Amino acid sequence: MTETCPVRPAVHYWPVEHLDALEFDPLLHRLLREEPIARVRMRFGEGEAWLVTRYEDVKEITADPRFSRELTVDRPVTGMTPHRVAPVGGIGRTDPPEHTRLRRLVAQAFNRRRAAALRVEAQEIADRLVVTMAEQGPPAELAEALTGPLPEQVIGRLLGVPAADFGRLQTWRGVILSSNHSLQEGNAVKAEIAGYFRELADHRVRQPGDDLFSELVAAQTAGALSRPELISLSVMVVLNALDQVRNQTSTMVYTLLTHPEQLARLRAEPSLLPQAVEELLRFIPQRNGVGMPRIATEDVAIGGVLIRAGEAVYVSYLAANRDPAVFADPDRLDLTRDEAPHLAFGHGAHYCLGAALSRMEAEVILSTLLRELPGLRLAVEPEQVRWRRGSVNRGPETLPLTW
Ligand code: HEM
């Protein structure tokens, strides 16, 4: 039997301050070492929640069906954004068996085999974009030139979203994935994006295409998922696809360019790339704060702490990735590291659906840039790079490069 702590620990107020570049959240760093299962309160929502930071505890909770996502629907758990980022009825807020059913419908589209097939197309897109960068000459802004358009075109093809609509989707993404707007604004934009996919679905019913969205529409017609589920699944996939790869790969380039000895190592040994991408995923603090909470469905003892039925729990994958019990010298970037799998894509039933796609896109982007632009470097001092503020996912606002 695990002994559990009878006294309620003090609550930490966690405003999730703005952090630049690769700076790690100081509260996460401290709690991981001093209070790995802590009580926190954030800027929005009500009450308090548990925050779990150790690698083993994070894995345990995320693999344990006694922690529910569905029970967070309609519960204003303390959090970092005024609205809930994930739409209600969305894949992130369901439990098995609904969750399993929804994942099955899209998992095929995002599996490793599909990612491998898409790699050829992604490589063609990357080649074209990097040739344009080279022709236009330095300096170039990375997200504008490569890390924005590449994932956009890849997900556009996969999902069948017309290229002309990405301007609007990017604007909605900017509002939904930020914490700098009111609840009303957030809800209005979520209604707009849902309306967009409803219209697209009506169109695809009449005129199906050879794409994932048409497959989902057909599945809805066949009764395998509901219309609200179809809409929220599409919104979730598009928002993640547009935001995460762009930020993550831009930050990967920044990280390599500001760790010249690691970059030299990778240039000397290009076959290290897949491993290097894993280490960059582990090392880069790619988000602010934490993702979606879970609710305990019964009393659960974890790491000597009793989490009571009905209490909200957050895990920090970022902190878990820096756990000194698992990663030696965890705050150091080491592209040859291979101690344990990182948790950047999460763990358990809600493990990221886009992991294989993201890995593939990161490899294509980094290998093409390093091969085609061997003199690549920042066009400004590292301190002059501007970083996004008040957003859920971290990344450079702009990344000016020269070569
Ligand atoms: C480097 C880029 C990315 C990172 C670091 C990332 C990370 C994550 C994390 C941490 C989770 C949540 C795990 C949890 O809830 O416990 C997640 C879930 C998810 N991600 Fe990603 N993601 C990335 C890219 C993508 C892309 C490109 C897509 C879509 C094409 C995507 C689609 C999703 C979906 C649909 C979920 C929800 C899965 C579920 O609840 O079952 N992600 N991702």
What does this 3D model show about the protein?
The chain is α+β, with helices and mostly antiparallel strands and 403 residues long. It has one domain (11-402): Cytochrome p450 (Orthogonal Bundle). It is 47% helix and 8% strand. It has a six-stranded mixed sheet, covered by helices on one side. It has a three-stranded antiparallel sheet with strand order 5-11-10. The protein has a two-stranded antiparallel ribbon with strand order 7-8. Strand 1, helix 1 (26-34) and strand 2 (37-41) form a beta-alpha-beta unit. Helix 4 runs antiparallel to helix 6 (149-159) and helix 12 (273-283) crosses helix 14. The protein starts with 10 loop residues before the first strand and ends with a strand. Bound molecules: protoporphyrin IX containing FE. Protoporphyrin IX containing FE is lined by residues 62, 91-92, 103, 155, 236-237, 240-241, 244-245, 248, 286, 291-292, 317, 344-346, 350, 352-354, 357-358. Belongs to the cytochrome P450 family. InterPro entries: Cyt_P450, Cyt_P450_B, Cyt_P450_CS, Cyt_P450_sf.
